[in-house]
Amino acid sequence: MHLSRSIKQSVLTGTTIALATTGLTAVFLPKLNAQPLPLSENLVALNSDHGALLLRQSKAKADYVPLSTHFVTQINQAFCGVASVSMVLNAMAVDAPAAEAWDQNYFTQKNTLNAETEAIIAESLIRRQGLTLAELAEIFETYPVDAEVHYGSELSLAEFREKAIANLKNPDDFMVINYLRRAIGQQRGGHISPVAAYNAATDRFLVLDVSRYKYPPVWVKASELWQSLDTLDSTSGKTRGMLLVQRR
Ligand SMILES: [Ca+2]
To answer: How far away, in angstroms, is 72 Cα from ligand 1 center?
Structure first.
């Protein structure tokens, strides 16, 4: 009885225990699936039955396949913007520099930054405070793409929805948002990620969150996502917002 309970507990916690009573050692592997933070009820995870259904039903998902093909996890806590830039440049098939790790041309979170981006903002500073919306746009524009800046304070909900849906129906451009996590019920500060699809029946956008260790991609109500853009970024003194990116 006691032994059975010990085994059960060890399975639950994914630990290794020595079964002293029998002289045997039982090894239990840690749980293999990722354990992101719990989602608040206003959000729908893409990796749920409901979330997958919303993607199947979406009529505005031209960007989903190219973005998901190059979806990455940010390599440190401040590189959400750099991760988003590298994903979008790869999705647009922009000529990439050599990636040291594989002797192959491909945008990574290391080679996306270079002497030109260093003149906009030093990598050491990005590592401390991340990127503002304007800095994100400037980094994009060191490559042969235009990044149209839309501050949250300047967008009505109707304008946001209209511009975003038009972008998500067009495979030749991409959308990246700078938003405040806690405005959509997540932990917790400013964040940057690409948006990949829209579901009209539920009026939700799909955010491909680059901090994949923390949250899955989520479907967010248009009104909540819009409100999360219209929040003050204390670094820039302006609101967050969205970028619409296309080849120059
Ligand atoms: Ca698009």
So the answer is: 18
Phi, psi of 157 (to 5 degrees): -60, -40
Mark whether 221 and 187 lie in a shared domain: yes
- Give the separation between CA 95 and CA 41, rounded to whole angstroms: 41
Same domain, 11 and 115: no
Measure 185 CA to ligand 1 centroid, in angstroms. 26
Helices (H) and strands (E) in the chain, counts: 9, 13
Residue 23 is part of which domain span? Answer: 1-32
Kindly report which listed range (12-16, 38-42, 198-202) carries the lowest average pLDDT score: 12-16
Confidence of residue 28 (pLDDT cuts 50, 70, 90): low
Q: How far, in Å, is the centroid of ligand 1 from the Cα of 64? A: 9
